[in-house]
Design brief:
By secondary structure, the chain is an alpha+beta fold. It contains eight helices and seven strands.
Amino acid sequence: MTAFKNLEDLRRRPIGQQQTARAARQGFRTRIPIRRDNALFGEAMVEARDHGLKGENFYASEKNPPYWQRVEGATEKLLLRASLAEKLSRVNARLAQAGLELFVFDAWRPRAVQAFFHDVWVPRELLRRNPSLSGAALTEEVERYWSAPSSDENSPAPHATGGAVDLTLRWKDGEALWMGSLFDDVTAMANRERFENLGPENFSFSDQEACANRRLLHWLMVEEGFAGHPDEWWHFSWGDQMWAALTGAPHAFYGSAPISESA
């Protein structure tokens, strides 16, 4: 009996095209209001590992390809809103039946880390590949993967809210499942539906496995109410402006996380 038996339907369920999600995501930080009079607005932040979740902050380590450096200002903590911790714990309970678990790369992110990648690392890398990029075209390509750092209370970056999380699947206390790309691969390889329609001429067992594992992660999270970034298989939101834009909710629950930048 396969360890995936009870989750096999999710591994077979297509994710579908993501063009609608990409369109919905455009301008979400200026378009979606944050409701401050809702019970979740001031919800507490918690450490994910205190709720039975596993992980290591990707930016606080030097073992983080393609960067291979600790990012200045990174935190070793994995902080998120209490409701997200509860939801992720329920996903973990489903995975446990197959000997699997979630592994968190990043949750709440300090502004310094967001600014470094948005303003420095990603533009530099994109220009190295394509020196013709400039102005609005460069900004658009950067912000396909990295939101601008928070500028005011009405438009926080998703990871600044505590309502966004980056994660993958792995065997319990073991190896990560194959997802077909590095975490933080800021290319089309990271697109959520990358392996959905390759066709028989491009078949490989590696791609087939990546497709099934991305589907499994996607549907587990979606069935718990999360919304997935269309261009990042690892990124999921609940309660923030991106989540509202992708799900059609009229407003976000969370603004900037109630936490010090030095946490």
